[in-house]
Amino acid sequence: MVVKTILMLMVFIVPLIILNTGIVSSVWLLFTLYVISGFGMAGIGMGIMHDAIHNSYSKNQKVNKYLGYTLNLIGANDSVWKIQHNVLHHTFTNVEEADDDINPPFFLRFTPHTKRYRIHRFQHIYSWFFYGLSTVSWVTAKDFVRMLRYKKMGFFQEKSVFTKELIKVIAWKIASFTFVLVLPIIMVPLAAWIVILAFITMHFVTGLLITTVFQLAHIVPTTEYPLPDEDGLIAGDWATHQLMTTSNFSPKSKLFSWFIGGLNYQIEHHLLPNICHVHYRKISHIVAETAKEYGLPYHNKHTFVSAVGEHFKMLRNLGKPDNLRIG
């Protein structure tokens, strides 16, 4: 974890430092450095901050706290993420309206219970483009939108707490945007629109990687989308719910698993979110055997490509009027 942390932070920061020195005057080098930084940003998001904010990076809570700030470093916010991901997504996985990960804009449909529009017929084609733009939306507007929504939900009940968190969000974003975009615009001897386009390209790389990895774990034909009953309760126990709504993929690819922070073992992560991802591979055999013993599902796709194919099918299926599930 320490080696990965140092490496990913360097991959993200070093290209930006080079850009901020003003020595880069080539368009292709500008884009190359931003793209490299995008891979570092994705590595930070999936392999560092994710464990830290789950308090699974280290037994030392101060280490988790400060490494959780790496999310703020790349332009998002750790406080908002804790609510959106740790609380809502992990508690209400694949439950419409409760799980913020499946509450996208109207032109995307991730559950069979969401209202269908005619445009959804083509979402299996255009979704990938919006996946690429997801982190641009995240670091600019989405954190503020979610803060207001979570305040209405009761997460920031005291006005002083909300104001304090809002100031922190704004301060971190100013710092991040200054380092990642404003200084390069000033220092790089190229037109500002070229630098902005390179910045968007960096985020497109990050957004496409991160969003695709997370989508493959939940938006596939084999996972379920349970609805609460009249009392607002979900049938069954929490652990069974996680097995029904989550899927693994590409379990044999060690390098790929290392880069994406073990998120190909999403079942293990959802059942045991307080355990560091470096242990998921060994734990997965125990979880799979236990699920089989009790007659519970253990969804798994053998390769990343096959998982992408299943997600593609699911998007296409959810765009059809009849909502037929594809197995």
From TrEMBL:
Gene Ontology cellular-component annotations: membrane
Organism encoding this protein: Christiangramia salexigens
InterPro entries the UniProt entry points to: FA_desaturase_dom (IPR005804), Fatty_acid_desaturase (IPR012171)
Superkingdom of the source species: Bacteria
Limits of the Fatty acid desaturase domain: 27-299
Protein name listed in UniProt: Acyl-CoA desaturase
PANTHER family cross-referenced by the UniProt entry: DELTA(5) FATTY ACID DESATURASE C-RELATED, FATTY ACID DESATURASE 2
Listed Pfam families: FA_desaturase (PF00487)
Keywords carried by this UniProt record: Membrane, Transmembrane, Transmembrane helix
Record field: transmembrane: 6-24, 31-49, 125-145, 166-186, 192-214
GO molecular function, a single term: oxidoreductase activity, acting on paired donors, with oxidation of a pair of donors resulting in the reduction of molecular oxygen to two molecules of water
GO biological process terms, semicolon-separated: lipid biosynthetic process
Keyword Flavoprotein assigned: no
